[in-house]
Structures are given as C-alpha cells and as structure tokens.
Write a structure and sequence with these properties.
The chain has 494 residues and is an alpha+beta fold. The chain contains ten helices and 23 strands. The longest helix has 18 residues. 47% of the residues are buried.
Length: 494
C-alpha cells in the first residue's frame, strides 16, 4: 500500500477540504499528489450474469465462521477473505444477497461499507497497491433467503425442518457468504460450522476438527485445500449420519457394478497410487436406504480415474438429504449433494464425473457450461458402455431422436433460463461422441485424460477445448464444431 500525503495545518483550510473530498471519493493521493487507485469493477460482464463476480482482485482463501440457529433461521457469520489486488484499488465489491453487515475491516483497519442490491462495496482506509495481498473481514448476520432462478428452480440457503442445505449454482452462494462469486475466481476454503446439540454440520473437503461446547453446541471445521469456485461450496445442517474411510483410488479397480467390465479401446496406464479421504453423510431417515450406494463411491471413482486420469482432490464423498427441500442433485466440490429420490447410480456417476469436468476444470464463463454437463453426461454413457453393455452410440442415437435437444446449440444457450436445458447436457454429450467417432478411440481417450490434466484446478472456455482437441488430433475439426457444437439445425442423420 502507498501512504497518503497528509496536508498540515499550515497549508490552510482549502487544502484540508480538498484532501477530505479526495478521501470521500475513495481516491488516494500518491507521491505526485495525483489520484492513483480506482474502484474495482462491480461485475465481470458474464454473458448471462453481468453483475456476478467483481474486478480488481483475485481471492486466494475464504475462512468462514458460521453459527446457525434452525429455530429462528438466523445465521451469524464472519468471512475472512485473503486476496491479491490486480490493480491499484481505492474500493472493491463483494457479492452478497440479503443479510445485514455489522462491519468490515481491511488489513485490520475499519473500512467504509455501502450496500446496493447484491453489491457490497468496501472502501479501505488506505489504497491497496496492484499486486499486494490484503485481508478483508466482514461480520454479518440475518436470515438467509433462497434465490429463485430464471428456470424456476431454488438455490441458495434452503431451510429444512431441523437445519438447512446450501447450494449455489449459479449464484446462490452469495446468500450465505460475501465473496467474488463468479466461477473464474477460485480459492481455497476453511469453513467452521456451529450448530445446536444433536445436529451435524457438513461441508466441502476434509473434516479437520469436531468439538462440543459446554452448552452442547457442536462445531465442525472443514478444509478444502484445492481451488474451488464459489458456486460449488456447500453446507448441510441436520441430523446426519456419517461414514468415513481412506481409500486407494488409482484407476486399477476392476469388476462392474452389473454385468462384466470391458476395457476402453486404449487402456490408460494407472496413475500413481493415491489415497483419498471418502466421507459420506446422509440424513438419518435415508441413511439406511442410501448406505449401499454410498459404499460404491470409491469403486466408481476408481473406474473414472482409469478413464479420466488422477482424481483431482484429496477428499470425496456425498451428502444425501431427505426429499422435499432440494429438487435436484448438484456436484458440490468433493461432496455432491443429492435428494434421496435422485440418489441412484446414474446420477452418482454424473456428479462424481463433475469432479474432473466442472469442478477441477471450471468454466471460464457460464456460456461454457456445456463443458461441465456434456462431459458428465458422456461419463454416464461411458459407464453403461463399459459395465452394462449399452454402447455409447445407443445413447447418442436416442438423444439425436429427441427434438428438445435441438432447441439451440450447446455452446450458445439463448438466455440464463436455458443454461440447464437438454441441449447443454444431451447435445453436449453428442458433441463428444461425434468427436470420438471422428478422431478414433485412441485419440479420444488421450483427449479425455489430457483435457482435465492440462486445465487442472483452472478455468477453460469452449475455444480452449476445441483448440486442445485439434492439437491432440493433429487436424482441423471445424466441420464437426460447425455442425454439432455451434450449428442451429438438426443434421439429416446421426
């Protein structure tokens, strides 16, 4: 940070007044007396959510300390955000929906706070220099509210009878903690949850501590050590039963869930043996009925590792909730969330595949969502091809016949309410199958493993993928992309 030039009393009242005006405007007088810092952008101009995310800084770590009272619905939170400035900053924004901010500091000094809609603007006492690391602390509280998306689904902080479930795709995480909530700004997380006696708090990553206070309240601490987009953060509070184990997941597992396994055309060499902490949690009413499938997670991950390359995280698992709160499964990082009715093997394969495709390799913008959903859907097709003797081509032909899949190109949904429509999933998978048929199984397997390796824990766009596939294939694939990825009409035949 640069220090501001301070005008002494001898300089007169006019100079003092000018200095005060500069401070109120968020400016900073540098060594030459000019204004250096400017406010970071309020929004990153995403094609579908232009106000989501913020400019001027890159978050490195979130430390969230949360206490929840299910009876009143009140959440008390402290967010400590470590970030690096990407410009000289006089002010910066955080995304936060609802809740009341009690105060904020930047590097220990009080910061001015302003609210406008979902934008929380902080003006630090001193300018933050480009490249400097800084720490922001925000204290907040209130009753978090859910968000109704453009497609009518609910996300954000969803209350249950005895707790809550928090999910955030695409923007719901702003309902329970302030942050830079565009997927292009990934960070590590430490989350501390304090809940009443008899309840459990579950989140992403590894559970590093669990303690009970004298009043019976239970605090659990969770640490996600690999970068995570804000929409993939989760919290589940309620009467949960947990199972935890350490598993070897290195792609050497054999044996199908049903039928007999068949090897991929180009068997991938096993990766370096890896151990992964697997923790599953299920609400008590659905714990017994979900136990067997939860127990298959290490085996499914092992098989996916054989096709997709090393598992990208140190933790894995699942959260299974009773029906009635959440209307869909979601690939929250390391620990996907499922309502009981959606906890089946096909959906589990889909959400676990997202750990490579969507979570480790995250979309550059929400227009690139087909890279998440197309790959995860194709993972379903590959699984049934290898272990249930249903060729991927059969799935492709079924999808080709469904008119809903031709409403728009998978790489160009017309509006935010179309992000989760069939073309993004089914036609996205069709693109990958046509790629496989065009380049051959051997090259396709190389793409399938190489793509998540090249962009591991990073962000990537549709252009990145098409360029990467062409580099591996060693040929121009414009005809394929023009018809299957970007084309408006349905081809004459599959």
């Amino acid at each position: 940070m640069t220090s501001r030039n301070r005008t002494g009393a001898a300089a007169g009242g006019l100079a003092a007044a000018l200095t005060a005006l500069a401070l109120l405007a968020g400016g900073c007088t540098g060594a030459t007396g000019g204004v250096r810092g400017t406010p970071g952008a309020a929004g990153l101009r995403d094609p579908y959510f232009p106000k989501l995310g913020n400019g001027g800084y890159d978050v490195r770590h979130y430390a969230l300390t949360l206490a929840y009272d299910p009876g009143t619905g009140r959440l008390d939170g402290t967010a400590e955000i470590t970030a690096r400035a990407t410009q000289d900053l006089s002010a910066f924004n955080l995304d936060l929906a609802g809740l009341t901010v009690a105060g904020a500091t930047v590097d220990g000094d009080p910061a001015a706070v302003n609210r406008a809609g979902n934008e929380l603007t902080l003006r630090p006492r001193e300018e933050i220099r480009d490249g400097a690391e800084f720490r922001t602390t925000v204290r907040y509280a209130g009753v978090p509210e859910s968000i109704t998306d453009a497609d009518g689904s609910q996300e954000g902080w969803l209350r249950t009878g005895d707790g809550a479930v928090a999910v955030g795709e695409p923007a719901g995480s702003m309902t329970w903690f302030p942050g830079n909530h565009h997927p292009s700004d990934k960070a590590t997380y430490t989350i501390s949850l304090t809940v009443p006696a008899g309840l459990e708090g579950i989140s992403n990553g590894a559970r590093t501590a669990r303690r009970t206070a004298a009043d019976g309240r239970v605090t659990t601490e969770w640490r996600a050590t690999e970068p995570m987009a804000g929409y993939l953060a989760t919290v589940a509070i309620g009467r949960y039963e947990t199972d935890e184990s350490v598993e070897r997941t290195d792609g050497t597992g054999t044996g199908p869930a049903t039928g007999t396994a068949t090897a991929p055309a180009t068997p991938a060499p096993p990766s370096t043996p890896t151990t992964v902490s697997v923790l599953t949690a299920a609400e008590r009413s659905v714990a017994a009925s979900s136990a067997a499938l939860r127990g298959e997670i290490p085996e499914i991950l092992d098989r996916q590792t054989r096709r997709f390359g090393p598992y990208p995280f140190s933790s894995a698992g699942a959260i299974v909730t009773r029906d009635g709160t959440l209307g869909y499964a979601l690939e929250t990082q390391t620990r996907p969330v499922f309502p009981a009715a959606s906890f089946d093997r096909t959906t589990l394969v889909h959400e676990l595949a997202h750990q490579w495709f969507g979570n480790s390799v995250s979309p550059a913008t929400w227009r690139d969502l087909w890279l998440n959903e197309g790959f995860a859907t194709y993972a379903e097709w590959l699984y049934t091809e290898e272990y249930e003797h249903v060729p991927a081509r059969t799935h492709f032909e079924r999808a080709f016949a469904q008119e809903a899949n031709w409403a728009f190109p998978p790489a160009a949904p017309p509006a935010a309410e179309n992000l989760f429509d069939p073309p993004v999933y089914q036609r996205g998978a069709m693109v990958l199958h046509k790629l496989r048929e065009t380049v051959g199984d051997r090259t396709f397997d190389e793409i399938l493993r190489g793509w998540p390796a090249k962009y591991r824990h990073a962000n990537a766009s549709t252009d990145d993928f098409t360029a990467y596939a062409e580099s591996v294939a060693g040929r121009d694939l414009d005809e394929l992309w023009d018809v299957w990825l970007f084309g408006d009409g349905k081809p004459d035949r599959p």
